[in-house]
Write a structure and sequence with these properties.
Length: 298
């Protein structure tokens, strides 16, 4: 549902509508730009190309300059556009040589540039290009493999994951299956919060964690249980999400597995939905945190 694209900054500036092209990336679109090179250097390369632009580029100079200025000044704007995955960049090689090398190690959804070695150019990034298409809604089997399989590309780009289910209870096997498969797909150093309600007394959680969760968390992955309580006039603790610092997905029936044959709908959150969900469940805005339990050994 989310793909990472290697995008040549000089080719973006040279396309017919560079600002419109950049608007095709970010939360809710299912597309993120790989920071190749890192964000500030990518924006610097785009700015230099803009200064050296042709007549066609000059027509859109003001709007593109404004967009680059916004990206330089706004960290949230940069985080919305660029993938959080760090990739090495060899300054002795050209941009396309770096992109091809990185694609050989961990493939991009596509390489976009005005170069024969790219998959297509920015001007060809449209509904006719299959590699530029993303699924914003899916129906999948209500199994751990079905749910997690749909969000693996998102997890691969992320360093922080927030799993939200108001009824999460690790004592029930159906609630353990999805987190276990997610843990297996995460890189070392990833931080995971499992956010749930205060339906169970806080005193019950240490024993549940020791008995049912500790052995499931792989080395290098940090996990916490966060218990939230609704506040008067605040948001309702009802939705089920897989949220990450690269985007988010709503899971209609929850993060527990269902009976054989059952399915569930997944929806990629729009930019506005993602911003609100991240604020509420990653920073707990509007809720009262009643308890936090690190999972020992994680």
């Amino acid at each position: 549902m989310v793909g990472e694209y290697a995008v040549d900054p000089t080719s973006v500036v040279a396309c017919d509508s560079p600002v419109k092209f950049l608007d095709e990336f970010g939360p809710g679109t299912g597309r993120l730009i790989a920071p190749l090179p890192r964000e500030n250097r990518w924006m610097g390369a785009a700015a230099r190309a803009l200064e050296e632009g042709t007549t066609r580029q000059l027509k859109t100079r003001a709007r593109m300059e404004d967009r680059l200025a916004e990206l330089r000044l706004s960290r949230p704007a940069r985080e919305a556009l660029f993938s959080p995955r760090n990739r090495p960049y060899d300054g002795k090689l050209t941009w396309i040589e770096n992109a091809v090398a990185q694609h050989g190690r961990v493939p991009f959804q596509a390489i976009i540039a005005e170069d024969a070695r790219a998959h297509f150019s920015p001007d060809d990034a449209d509904s006719l290009e299959p590699r530029f298409q993303t699924a914003r809604g899916l129906r999948v089997p209500r199994t751990a493999q079905g749910i997690v399989g749909a969000v693996v590309p998102l997890l691969a780009l992320s360093s922080r994951v927030v799993l939200v289910d108001p009824y999460f209870d690790p004592e029930m096997p159906r609630f353990r299956d999805v987190p276990v498969v997610i843990f297996e797909r995460l890189a070392a150093g990833t931080e995971v919060d499992i956010v749930t309600g205060s339906r169970l007394p806080a005193g019950a959680w240490p024993a549940k964690i020791t008995r049912y969760l500790e052995r499931l968390v792989p080395s290098g992955v940090s996990v916490r249980i966060i218990l939230l309580e609704e506040q008067p006039g605040g948001p309702k603790l009802h939705a089920r999400y897989v949220l990450t610092n690269a985007g988010g997905v709503a899971v209609e029936t929850g993060l527990d597995v269902g009976a054989p044959g059952q399915e569930t709908d997944l929806h990629l959150l729009s930019a506005e939905q993602y911003e609100r969900a991240w604020r509420e469940y990653a920073t707990w805005a509007g809720f009262t945190v009643t308890a936090t339990f690190p999972v020992p050994g994680s």
